[in-house]
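Request: Show me your protein:
***
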Amino acid sequence: MPEKNIHLAIDLGAGSGRVLAGEWHHGRIDLHEIHRFTHQPLTLDSGHHWDADALRQDILDGLKLAVEKFGSRIASMGADTWGVDYGLLNREGELLGPPFQYRDSRTDGMMERAAELMPENEIYARTGIQFMFFNTLYQLLGEKASHLDDAADLLFMPDLVSYWLTGQRVQERTIASTSQLYNPTSRDWDSGLIETMGFPARLFKPLTDPGTVLGPVTAEVAKATGLQDVQVVTVGGHDTASAVAAVPTSGGIVAYLSSGTWSLMGVERPEPMISLDSFADGFTNEIGFGGTVRFLKNICGLWLIQESRRTWQEQGEEISFAEMSAQAKAAEPFRSLINPDDPIFASPGDMPERIRAQCRATGQPVPESVGQLVRCIYESLALRYRQVWRRLISHLPATPECIHIVGGGCQDRLLNQMAANAIGVPVKAGPVEATGLGNIMAQLVALGEIPDLAAGRAVVGASESSENFLPQDAAEWNHAAENWGKLPLSGDSE
């Protein structure tokens, strides 16, 4: 029998998903992309939803392809996804409907409603979570009462995938901590907050830690895919938890920027940091692998780039991300700037026109070409990174020596260099596949192949290289930051 040294990572982002195979040998993980697929929200009379049936079928297709390639060498698998979204199951284990997409408008006004039930400062003191309109707390407030009355289980998206694979209904801790209903100090659901909001207590179960073996795939999944004797493991179910677990560092304060649709900037700490200052600055405390806490802030990331590209495609203009970056590099610097976190950019739509309208409204040159518009986004993102970085280090005992940029966004060398220039500390870019590596690392810990997080990070360092970017052009970026700060931008101040 061949050695079972293949571990599969099901990695679902907000716009695409993948099944990756990690080949574990000689103290390193070699990744192979088995199946990549796109998924888009369903627009129904009830709102924006995820197409759960299509997601499930794409996952099964990816697992079948993995079996065709690796056969009985597959030992385990685990699933990670974006945060906050969930499905509601009835007593028979069936979805009450397709899961809502986090940008659905049913959360409109729900932050205000929550504040009427409990003051925001108390909600933050209990949860340590940044106030975002799409948090699970506000999604549940926006649910129809009948849905909650009929629900027997609430499964976050990675929990739902695990349920499809094993039949086990569990709630994994890292994804639960994104909900704004989890207390990172008591390390459990905040029952007082849940009761005050009027949510059924039965929906909030004992939590499962990442690195727990749930058991084998069901007979139905085995028949559909050909999988044999394969264990399903809970990993860092929130994709950022898996990505941060794979930051290849050996000590000191671990500072990171997980770069994708969202940019998440923060540090890894042993305990939550919840104070009046962190509340005012909008920082969040989410649980990481091994009981760590991810003290971070959500920043609008490559969403602006992705939506712009989608708009151009709809208009008949095909342009790759590499071409967009090349045209941005050739464009005039600091011609136009925006605040990426302005609420006007939060929903889907014609992003290039929204950016142009914002530049008109602030009396700046209007970006017309692709290069001008993408450069506006990149420089604005980098200046927002600088602003958040300065607030982040104000909460720390010492300034980190560098920041690690991980995830798909770290492939853009222009944005990496701009980030280093704006923040003023070296950037280490990589690994690109941090989420997949962190997912597989959790499986290896669960199966006893590696002992802990520190050993796993050493494995990641041996598996993928990183690229260094040193700060440049400090005077120009300081001047740009000063001008950016004078614009009538929403968001917090530096």
Q: What stands out?
A: Residues 490-494 have pLDDT under 50 and may be disordered. The longest strand covers residues 28-38. The chain has 19 helices and 21 strands. Residues 206 and 254 are 29 Å apart (CA to CA).
